[in-house]
Design brief:
The complex is a heterodimer. By secondary structure, chain A is an all-alpha fold. Chain A is built from 13 helices and two strands; from the N terminus they run H-H-H-H-H-H-H-H-H-E-H-E-H-H-H. Classes of the chains: A mainly alpha, B alpha+beta.
Amino acid sequence: MAGNYSSEKKWRLFRNYTYTGTAGIFIFVGLIAFSVSGPEPYPLRYPSNFGSRFTVPEDNPTTKEGVYLGRMLFYEKKLSAGNSVSCESCHQQKRAFTDGKALSTGLNGAQTARNSMSLANLLWVRNYFWDGRAGSLEEQARFPLTDPHEMGQDLQESVRKLQETAPYPALFKQAFGSDRITEERIVQALAQFQRTLISAGSPYDDYLAGRYDPTDLELSGMRLFESNPDPERAIRGANCAHCHGGPRLHKELFHNNGLDLSASDPGREAVSGERSDKGRFRVPTLRNILLTAPYMHDGRFASLEEVLDHYSDHVQAAENLSSFLRGSSNEINGTQLALTSPEKQAIIAFLGMLTDTVFITNPDFTNPHNHP
Amino acid sequence: MDVYSFPRLFVLLLLFVYKAHAQQEPTLSITGEVQTPLTLRLSDLKAMEQVTYTANDREGTENRFKGVPLVELLRKAGVTTGRELRGENLVKYVLVSAADGYEVLYALPEIDPDFTDQVIFLALEKNDAALPANEGPFRMIVPNDKRPARWIREVRHITVRFALR
């Protein structure tokens, strides 16, 4: 019958459609396979009592390839003018990513304005730096990279240097799908690596998990750390936990802790423009505190003994002194906290429980240029 | 001294006082799920309805707080209160943050007079004087909270949000 397909022709047409369909499926599967072979998610593992109140930017998910690239960059001196320093220069793993100096040393021995901060559990931090001026790790990274007193190199120059340094183009391709290096991708990779710097392996973590028995001295230090002094009811305390407590030993707070009657460093005031923020600084984490001397934003205290002496006996009545340091005393009508010498030693013994040797020896955080 | 000097000086002085005042008058911002984001100055807040509440502090001293009901601030910003506080609006919350970064939250029904007799309010005064530096200029008073952890001091921002997920 003219105009009609023969049954054989119909069959062939059917087969052709089927082939096309099959080819389509193969292409589709291929696309899936391609996306699976892209960057692999990096699981951020932490104890449940740390809570999940953190945000990872949607445009910068944490991936194994991105984290490895970030780790390479963290230890890369080419990111500094004259290839002289890297992030590690001020953030050494063995010191919980600090540098042991009162003020850090950048390019040509230049001193920074403030003490190097420990890089532990940054995932939960919301405002970075002593004055909280950066709202994300991505934003944070730009400061030390380009500050003339730190690494002192324009990001454009860093892009140019890395673009012609193996294996960076390949590593950027694995992490971001393209070997085109950009300023944005440099800070994104650094942020990814820093999100993985989780410290959760100290004796204190083990104690909270019921796996560690503190010594009597540690226990008495812990009690002081957590107690609000109440001399009328004969309760002795140092009230540290009010600002430093919780399983992470960190709260997102900015306080004037009475170092000076009138602060010479404006601190948070420079960010907020509010006069009442003068001399307010980040309340830092106490994790690994034994490893991160010297202390305070300007590194003025060489030892924890000096720190305890300050909080116990020398808090200055600055106008905006933290209300939690005001009038808190172990003596009736006392104006200072007034801890005894053995009490200070007990608190320091407790602070020793916060040292996380797993964190400072974790091979995932070491210099990959030495041991890839 | 010519005849114009004194008035000139006086005007300059007035200007200086006005400028210093304008720079330093504390403000409170209200943003988020609102019809009108607001930045209110202390003088704006003083012009609103005021309530008082007397409470003992930890030392047993009686203090009289005076300020603006939080619900009035929410109404001014156009937040779903009263008859509108139903359905998905019931999963909105008010996040209050302080100068030191401390934050607390209340659910809308904890604030709304259709739901509760408690009047959470933003105190502007304590014992007929401005709140002291480390407590004010604004402090939230939550009469039914026995532990004053949500009596947040040095309030700077109020944000209204939906609970997500």
